[in-house]
Specification:
Length: about 160
């Protein structure tokens, strides 16, 4: 078995450390939004960051500096888009949509669930995770832009017997 020399592995370790430090600094400078719940833009950023650094880490066809420039560029773009969405909130809803009502006053919105590809079991799981035992205890249930289901309980959880 013909293994590369030890300096080769040392160089990969050093490149990995440099890229990780650049990512940590870049993500820290990008703000807390990057570390919070993932929306579509954040998911794309994670995928692109992985691709941008892969060759820089392993001395593939990429150069270390190319990987670092790619990471910085992606983080700057993410920050600029984030700032744009803060200043022009309507743009974010145009890109990512808006929450969809799945439950209203204890009743499932079957057309919305069908359109969004959400099952009754998924809604009931979200209801139970909120400590509620029945749909009748739900004032509103939303499918958020990031794919999570948010449940707002009724003021009086014992109210009503509506199920579907």
């Amino acid at each position: 078995m013909n293994l590369p020399p030890a300096w080769y592995y040392s160089a990969i370790a050093a490149r990995t450390i440099i890229v990780v430090l650049c990512l940590i600094v870049g993500v820290r400078l990008s703000g807390k939004r990057v570390g919070g719940g993932l929306n579509l833009l954040d998911l794309l950023l994670v995928l692109l960051l992985g691709n941008a650094v892969q060759n820089a880490l392993t001395q593939g066809s990429g150069d270390l500096l190319v990987g670092i420039v790619s990471v910085i560029t992606l983080l700057v773009i993410d920050r600029l888009i984030g700032n744009l969405f803060v200043r022009r909130p309507f743009l974010e809803s145009r890109f990512f949509g808006s929450p969809t009502v799945l439950v209203s006053q204890g009743r499932l919105n079957h057309p919305a669930m069908l359109h969004e590809g959400v099952s009754e079991d998924e809604v009931l799981t979200a209801v139970h995770e909120q400590g509620l035992s029945d749909l009748s205890q739900v004032k509103l249930g939303f499918l958020e832009e990031n794919g999570t289901i948010s449940i707002i309980p009724r003021d009086d959880p014992s109210h009503g017997t509506a199920r579907k």
